Amino acid sequence: MTTAWDDNDPIETKEWLDAFASLVKHEGPERARFIIAKLLEKAAQKGVASGAAAIQTPYVNSIPPDQDAEYPGDLALEQKIDTAIRWNAIAMVMRAKRDAGGVGGHLSSYASIATMYEVGMNHYFRGQTKESAGDLIYFQGHSAEGNYARAFIEGRLAEKQLQHFRQEVDGNGISSYPHPWLMPSFWQFATVSLGLGALQAIYQARFIKYLENRKLLPENDRKVWVFCGDGEMDEPESIAGLAMAAREALDNIIYVVNCNLQRLDGLVRSNSKIIQELEGVFHGAGWNVIKVLWGRQWDAIFAKDKKGLLLKRLTQVVDGDLQNAYVRGGAYTREFLCGDSEALKTLLADLSDDDISQLNRGGHDSIKINSAYRAATQHKHQPTVILVQSVKGYGLGTKGAEGRNVAHNHVELTEEELIAFRDRFKLPLNDKQLLALEFYQPDKNSPEMQYLHAQRKKLGGYLPSRSTVSGKLSIPALSAFDAVLKGSGERTASTTMVLGRIFNVLLKDPQIGSRIVPIFSDEVRTFGLESLFRQIGIYSHVGQLYTPEDKEQLVYYREAQDGQVLEEGITEAGCMSSWIAAATSYSTHRLAMIPFFTYYSMFGFQRVGDFIWAAGDMRARGFLIGATAGRTTLEGEGLQHQDGQSLLAASAVPNCRAYDPTFGYELAVIIQAGLRCMFEEDQDIFYYIMAMNEKYVQPAMPEGVTEGILKGMYLFQAGGESKLKVQLFGSGAILNEVIAAAELLKNDFAVSADVWSVTSFNELHREGVELERQALFAPETKRGQTTVETSLQKHDGPVIAATDYMRAYADQIRRFVPRSYTVLGTDGFGRSDTREKLRHFFEVDRYYITIAALNALAQEDKIPANKVTAALKKYNIDPKKPNPMSV
To answer: Three-state secondary structure along 267-302?
Structure first.
């Protein structure tokens, strides 16, 4: 079988190539692309398998030399700026390690990506102005040192801050990576958790189109730039949104994948070619692909290579050998490339070994990078990826880190390497300054500094930069939700159904209705919220090109170009990325949006917890609704659909306010208060709220409970006077079982039970910890009382708490309960069965709550223990029943 490089009839091949060259010359590249597409189409029809050839091109730059764009700037001045930034990034990391000890950092990542950043900073990346919100740049997390070094040169960061790199506690330092929470006027996006930035950026680009199509923002040519590494592309999130970006024709997003061929410990695809692989992935997904592999020095060599022998060799060689040749220098590279080929030896004969060692990768050539950026920004109707080949640790010395497997962990340069760096990049420091690791800032009146500021002024301002325009929204009063607050009367309703009524109120509100962004994966009908389809429509950038089969139905599946619902398909990660785009819109787009992402609670923190953590870092504002919440609410579903831990996961995010309401009025109170906190008071928090699909009568809101709902607990039902008293805590789905247990205790055992609705054990715990901290620093003052303590002051008896979550959820407040405290929960793997069976299996139903209450009384010698034994028999509870934690 012949390969792509075998040619049995070179004359015929030349005729085809000449014909194609004539086509390009006389009719242009667009016509040539059309002809290629038609040929591939015909090949498929004829059963001629094209395979990788259809999605991979030879290992050469996509833009030929004669089509390189004229460089728009002063390369000599830019080189001086680049040198200063490279050096300050090195000095910052090495000084932190020297002066602080134990403080890490990265040298090699920025060294490989610097030219890509600088071409963009000088000519492409637009900052915010009064007229435009600017481009959005997702900087590579591990190259943050370069961003800091440039900001120092620009005068935006002080030398003291660089001296305290990764030393933030005392207030003078700067964070290790892009963290908007820590540097809220500098970083926009949290990108260092690999893969998250890439997926977020795609949905951010789509969100811009969403805002434009809904006429909330004017149409513009803003770009979303994503910088990531080739190793990072192995993260599933990095490629999860590629097809969506092509399907939505997102020509406002540009990926720049820095292919230095190395991960942390070694090569990305040592036995193959990562750039070719990525080209196939992106081409296959429908992206415009631009490869920038070789610097200008290669152009003349390729031009002389009439038979394509060198190109053939470079396409065949694997990355491991390519990297090895770079490290070993010119003589080795010559031998490696030529082998026994006399033709290749002749091709390289007029180059010395030193000349060959200077043959650069495209990622370090400003002209090649500029040509790619220009082509990418002008491309229409497709997203673009630029695959750039670079050298990890570029400029750090081939004897040290440059191109070597150790590059990622190389955070020090020897005296010899420092001097070599200075001489190579013409850094204007003497030996004493160099070895003392002095920062270098050119004179403010120097040509390079004037150039730097002029270029950024032309582009709208400095980057990275984050600003917040407080566009406070007018939030409807709680009374607007009166229909919910009055309860459901005789009818039953789930809190998810109540959520739909709350949506109706919000969407009809003249002030904020257009700002609501309902987001779903693929369960709108499951949640009973399909009325949104007709009411506000599902967003589609092309509208609805088909007639839905349910068109005659009242709530047919309606897509519209100005649709408000974002239904993303079965991708919680994609939904979270859309949610983050909307939840940070108040900053990135200077337009506050109010996102509600409603999903199976099991697939929130369980599946996309890293995105939720990043959302907290980015000061997101909005609502996550964990629907079909709890371990026992979803009838018939099994282990993997049952959530007993997400509220515990939520407790780990400092700015997440998590609630587990039972009743519709509780849900309304929490949402209205959340809207007020986030969009009237500008608090950088977000809400995680559970919603159930279990239907029951929704009571009217009692008087005076609003404050308790928000603090975390209130007395729902008083038990009356009795010699025997217990306090029953419940939340969410299990509160109704607690209420039923109170009836059993009263009727069967003459025990009076006060029933407390605990809307948030997380908030009660947060308050308690804060009061403990205050007391720690005021040892002569008595600690203030928690809500739990003040609530129980006039209510006697042991406390029993039951929830639909792991015991650890309610256990959070144990030390704030001033008496006996028993916790029931749903620890262990679940089962498929009815709600009643599941609650019995997990030992959280009314009977187990009753037994727990009686046992607590027996432990306090208020009733004899045999009464508990009798109750076990009465309710047919088998003491030998298997422990749900272990089965």
So the answer is: ECCCCCCHHHHHHHHHHHHCCEEEEECECCHHHHHH
pLDDT of residue 635: 79
Rounded Cα distance, 308 and 305, in Å: 5
Burial of 580 (C-beta count, 10 Å sphere; 0-12/13-18/19+): buried
| Confidence band of 528 (pLDDT split at 50, 70, 90) | confident
In the predicted model, what is the mean pLDDT of the chain?
A: 94
Q: Residue 210's pLDDT band (boundaries 50, 70, 90)? A: very high
What is the C-alpha separation between 600 and 424, in angstroms, rounded?
Answer: 57
- Which DSSP string do the residues of 102-157 spell out, in sequence order? S----SHHHHHHHHHHHHHHHHT-----SS----EEE--GGGHHHHHHHHHHHTSS
pLDDT of amino acid 585: 96
* Beta strands 686-690 and 713-717, pairing class: unpaired
Contacts of 865 (CB under 8 A, 6+ apart): 858
Rounded to an integer, what distance in angstroms lies between the CA atom of residue 528 and that of residue 340? 72
What is the DSSP secondary structure assignment for residue 401, as one 8-state letter?
I
Q: What per-residue confidence (pLDDT) applies to 1?
A: 36
How confident is the model over 677-732, as pLDDT tens digits? Answer: 999 999 999 999 999 999 999 999 999 999 999 999 999 999 988 999 999 999 99
Q: Are the C-beta atoms of 197 and 228 separated by less than 8 Å? A: yes
Question: Strand locations in 660-798, DSSP E?
Answer: 686-690, 696-697, 713-717, 725-730, 752-758
Own/partner long-range contacts of 162-169 (Cβ < 8 Å, ≥24 apart): 162/88, 162/91, 162/92, 162/95, 162/439, 163/95, 163/96, 163/99, 164/96, 165/92, 165/93, 165/95, 165/96, 165/103, 165/105, 166/96, 166/100, 166/103, 166/104, 166/105, 167/96, 167/100, 167/103
Lookup: tokens for 868: 């508990």
User: Are the CB atoms for 379 and 281 separated by under 8 Å?
Assistant: no
660 touches 629 (CB < 8 A): yes
Is the pLDDT at 411 greater than 80, yes or no?
no
Confidence at residue 2, expressed as pLDDT on a 0 to 100 scale: 43
Q: Which helix (H) or strand (E) holds 607?
A: helix 605-617
> How far is residue 839's CA from residue 734's CA, in Å, rounded to a whole number?
9
